């Protein structure tokens, strides 16, 4: 580990000690932030995996029903019937904060499906497919929020980890080694001064 190229003086020693204390305090704060980010990331990641599994299962059921409807009446009839369906689903995005990080909070208002298709020209499977697709919308909204949060938290965690590494492995050791070098240099200088003063005193005594 290299040391800083500064003169070994008492004033520089005091400055370095203050800078080292500030760096150590900054590292402690960053380490606390890192732990909080890890907890937030892991909890959301676990929840995202769970929601993703549920979404996959519900979508599989919905597509199964859609395929059954297409087999009964044909995909063209399904497309034509779907064009006549209008539903009012709404999504709202707000900010939530974690350690200075802005994480979008996504909420949705999903209109109840009910029976939308007419009696003729469609299939009961079409209503079943629509109900299943509508049921999964709120989970997709939650999954979008969780995946976005996971990406942002992971990115912030990497930045925080790099800063922690810079402080703990580069900056703080450099400060500490430079402080030790200056302390040793000052102590050596004091010993030399003491020896010189003793020699001067001895000569003055012998001369007197």
Structure write-up:
With 208 residues, the protein is mainly alpha-helical. It has one domain: Helix Hairpins (Orthogonal Bundle), CATH 1.10.287.3240. It is built from 3 helices and 2 strands. A two-stranded antiparallel sheet has the order 1-2. Helix 1 packs antiparallel against helix 3. The mean pLDDT is 85.
Tell me the layout of helices and strands.
Blueprint: H1 10-73, H2 75-83, E1 90-98, E2 101-109, H3 124-207
Helix pairs in contact: 1-2, 1-3
Q: What are its keywords?
A:
single chain; 208 residues; Helix Hairpins; mainly alpha; 2 strands; 9% strand; 75% helix; two-stranded antiparallel ribbon
Outline:
This protein has 208 residues and is mostly helical.
CATH class: Mainly Alpha
Over all CA atoms, what is the radius of gyration?
Answer: 35 Å
The H/E string reads HHEEH
Class inferred from helices and paired strands: mainly alpha
Ends distance = 52 Å
Please state how the strands of the largest beta sheet are arranged side by side.
1-2
Q: Give the overall average pLDDT.
A: 85
Low-confidence stretches: none
């Amino acid at each position: 580990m290299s040391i800083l190229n500064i003169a070994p003086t008492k004033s520089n020693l005091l400055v370095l000690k203050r800078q080292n204390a500030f760096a150590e305090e900054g590292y402690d704060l960053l380490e606390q932030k890192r732990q909080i980010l890890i907890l937030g990331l892991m909890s959301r990641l676990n929840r995202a995996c769970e929601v993703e599994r549920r979404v996959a299962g519900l979508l599989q059921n919905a597509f199964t029903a859609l395929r059954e409807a297409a087999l009964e009446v044909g995909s063209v009839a399904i497309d034509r019937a779907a064009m006549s369906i209008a539903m009012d689903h709404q999504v709202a995005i707000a900010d939530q904060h974690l350690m200075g990080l802005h994480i979008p909070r996504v909420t949705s208002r999903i209109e109840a499906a009910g029976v939308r298709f007419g009696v003729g020209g469609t299939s009961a499977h079409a209503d079943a497919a629509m109900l299943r697709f509508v049921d999964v919308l709120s989970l997709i909204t939650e999954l979008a929020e969780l995946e976005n949060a996971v990406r942002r938290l992971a990115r912030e965690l990497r930045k925080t980890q790099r800063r922690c590494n810079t402080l703990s492995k580069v900056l703080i050791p450099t400060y500490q080694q430079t402080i030790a070098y200056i302390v040793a240099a000052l102590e050596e200088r004091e010993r030399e001064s003491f020896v010189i003063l003793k020699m001067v005193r001895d000569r003055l005594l012998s001369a007197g």
